[in-house]
Amino acid sequence: MKQTATFIPTLRETPADAEVKSHQLLLRAGFIRQNTSGIYSFLPLGKRVLQKVENVIREEMEAVNSVEVFLPAMQQAELWQETGRWYSYGDELMRLKDRNGREFALGATHEEVITSLLRDEIKSYKKLPLNLFQIQSKFRDEKRPRFGLLRGREFLMKDAYSFHATPESLDETYNDMMQAYTNIFTRLGLNFRAVIADSGAIGGKDNHEFMVLSEIGEDTIAYSDSSSYAANIEMAAVNVDYPVPAEAPKTLEKIETPDQKTISQVAEFLRTTADQCIKTLVFKADEELVLVLSRGDHDINEVKVKHATGAKVVELATPEEVKELLACDIGSIGPVNVPSSIRVFADHAIKSIANGVTGANEEGFHWINVTPDQDFSVEAYADLRFVQEGDPSPDGEGTIQFAKGIEVGHIFKLGTRYSEDMKATFLNDQGRAMPYIMGCYGIGVSRVMAAVAEQFQDENGFTWPDAIAPYEVHIVPVNMKDETQRELGQELYKELQSNRYEVLLDDRTERAGVKFADADLIGLPLRVTVGKKAAEGILEVKNRRTGETFEWKREELIEQVQQFFKK
């Protein structure tokens, strides 16, 4: 492709509203342009990168017998109502009505649509397993779109759905997809880890996220420093043997603590430590208000609270709800003397406290000498806190460390979560109607592009990996007014194309400095400069990724390029 015939609007200055390097460079190098907040146009270079990411995905999906389909972006509300997600998905679901007042959603995900399709078509176990995937735009009304393509309101996604007659069949496909995803992100050159994750609004059990390690990642990964264990911090189990308290229980006593509301304030005021304080939060689990306890030096994990309570939706109670339940403000909550109708859940670490401190459910007062199971009752103990750096790894090997990550893929075992709600059944080998057992597998295609852009760059621009660079070779005649340079550049362009290389020819009449700056900014793997030595048949070559420069003879071009790309 000749640069005069395509559309690559490079920028010298960094856009002021671009926060991260990948976003800045994708704008500056002319790969994308913002249409409105969280919504982008992909320009020719960006579109080529997307297509190459898609091609890698398609190859690996087809290798595990996943077949491509294309499902509607507009989905009728009735399908989402069957699963209850029309009401529980939240404000991110973009809803609209047609001229007849019928409600629709723009596809944030496609579990309902694919399940409705299969329930009408597949009636026998003999047609299972079946694995279908698509690549199309998704729509989510993000409250705060940010970081360019990393968190947008419209984005390109690959989503696959598998249907099975037995759990063993799902396990087999899940493992195949795990390997396929590993192959995809390895081929793209990404530094990533597969981590144990929460299924969120999708539902289901047993799932993994694929995280690209990056300082700008919005997710925290907890990993072992001595093994392959890795989990999203929301799902990282806490495997700590808490000491049995040696101190004998003392008499419960209420103490005045004026204006002391936080754990640190109360601990300092009472001359104790945070790990001797009992933190109490009120959560709304579906429609029920429950008390959740943790040690004062720990943070309660809402995902674990959701699992412990069995609720579909968990959120912190409002100050008004707390006031109505316990007749006190949030800073004075405690489990002592609460009505027996209020369920109390406690983290395992609470059992290590003797003669601790907790709120008295009365403004300006706390209890001291509080002992669990003596001074208050707990319905269930569970792992309810966030893991901390330095905790033992759950697999028993090493200790936990933290890293930041960008989620680029997620695989789920959905089980019968959707098929039961939607009455999607097949006849098994005994002629009985059974709900499909399902799996779900997603990759954020446009997010992958941004993640690669974040990892493959330097101070001058992109350093795209060979697999998804928009072109392989950038030919740069320094002076298009020089007949020798111009003609040699055209010859090299045609010769490389005839050998099936993807070539970008900079045939613009720009100054050499502009051409070189743009070439570095765009970041194609190999730059071939046709300059002052063109008349001698000498080409100046640059490896964009390493910065190494060397000279090739014109007649050796194809052989050298083949060696460079190892074709």
UniProtKB/TrEMBL annotation:
Predominant location:
cytoplasm
> SUPFAM superfamilies, alphabetically?
Class II aaRS ABD-related, Class II aaRS and biotin synthetases, YbaK/ProRS associated domain
Give the source species: Planomicrobium soli
The lineage is: Bacteria, Bacillati, Bacillota, Bacilli, Bacillales
UniProt similarity note: Belongs to the class-II aminoacyl-tRNA synthetase family. ProS type 1 subfamily.
- Quote the InterPro entries the UniProt record gives: aa-tRNA-synt_IIb, aa-tRNA-synth_II, aa-tRNA-synth_II/BPL/LPL, Anticodon-bd, Anticodon-bd_dom_sf, Pro-tRNA-ligase_IIa, Pro-tRNA-synth_IIa_bac-type, Pro-tRNA-Synthase_IIa_type1
What gene name does this entry carry?
proS
Q: Under what name is this protein listed?
A: Proline--tRNA ligase
Domain of life according to the entry: Bacteria
Matching entries from NCBIfam families are given as:
PRK09194.1, proS_fam_II
Q: Domain comment text?
A: Consists of three domains: the N-terminal catalytic domain, the editing domain and the C-terminal anticodon-binding domain.
GO MF annotation, one: proline-tRNA ligase activity
